[in-house]
Amino acid sequence: MSTGELAASLRTWRDRTDPAEVGMAVNAPRRAPGLRREELALLAGISIDYVVRLEQGRTRTPSAQVCASLARALRLSDAEQAHLFRLAGHAADRGRISRRIPAGVRRIVEALHDSPIGVLDVTWTLISWNPLYAALMGDPTALEERRRSTLWRIFTEGEAGDRVRHTREERDALAASLVADLRGSTSRYPNDPELSTLVDDLYRASDEFAGLWDSGVVAGHHQSHKTVVHPDVGDIELDCDTLTTAEDDLRLLVFTPTPGSDARSRLDLLAALGTQTMEVGLRRT
C-alpha cells in the first residue's frame, strides 16, 4: 500500500467535497473549500485523530469497513472507490468480499427516501444507510465497527439492534437464517480475512452460533419481521426485505410498513421529526 498516495487522495477528495451536498450546515464563509477534518470524521463515523493520521500517512492498515465509510462520506465514484480500496490494500479479488457501494446503489437508496434502507456487506455489517434508517434505528456512526455487524449483535447481545424487538420465534428464525447465509458466503469468499475472523470470533463467543454453524445448513436470507421500539414515536411494525446486488453481493435491507399496522403514519412522523431534530451528521447516505 502507498500511504503517501492514500493520504494525498483523501486530502484531495475532502477538499473538493461540497459541505452542503453532504448535509453539513454552512452558516459562514470558510477559509478553505471542502469539508473540515472534523466534518469528515463525523460523516464517516471515525475519530478526528484517525482522519489526521490517514491524511498524514501515519496509518498503514485502514480496514475495508473504514474505507467504505470514507467512500460514502466523500461520495466517491465507482472508479474512485476502487482506487481507495486498492491503495488501502483491499484490491479486488474474487475470493474477497466487496465493500464498494456503486453509484447506482447510492442513487436507489437516496430515491427511496420514504423507506428506511440499510446497506450491508456479506458479513451482515452495516456500511451505508439513508436518513430515515438512522432516524429509525439510531445513529450508526455512534457504533464501534464490530457492533455494526448484525450477526455480532444477535449472538452476543441477543438482538439485531438496540431498538429492535422480536418474538422469540422471530429472533431464532432470523439467527438461523443469517448463519445459513453466512456459511454460503464462506465458499464464495474463501480468501477474505475479515469473514474468517468474524466466524472464528462468533464461534468462540456464542455456543448458539457454534451449534448453528456446525449444523452445516446453507441457505439465503430474504425476509423478516421486526418491531422497532422508537423513543419518540412508539412501536413500529415493519417487514424487512433483503435485496442482493449482483456485482458486489451487497444486501439492501428495505423496511416497509406491516400490512394492517399504523407503521406508515409513524414513519411519516419520524421523517418529519428527523428533519427538525436529528444531528447534522445523520443527514446523508
From TrEMBL:
Q: Which organism is it from?
A: Actinomycetospora chibensis
Q: Which InterPro entries does the record cross-reference, listed alphabetically?
A: Cro/C1-type_HTH, Lambda_DNA-bd_dom_sf, MLTR_LBD
Q: From which domain of life does this come?
A: Bacteria
Q: What is this protein's name?
A: Helix-turn-helix domain-containing protein
- The segment(s) forming the HTH cro/C1-type domain are 30-81
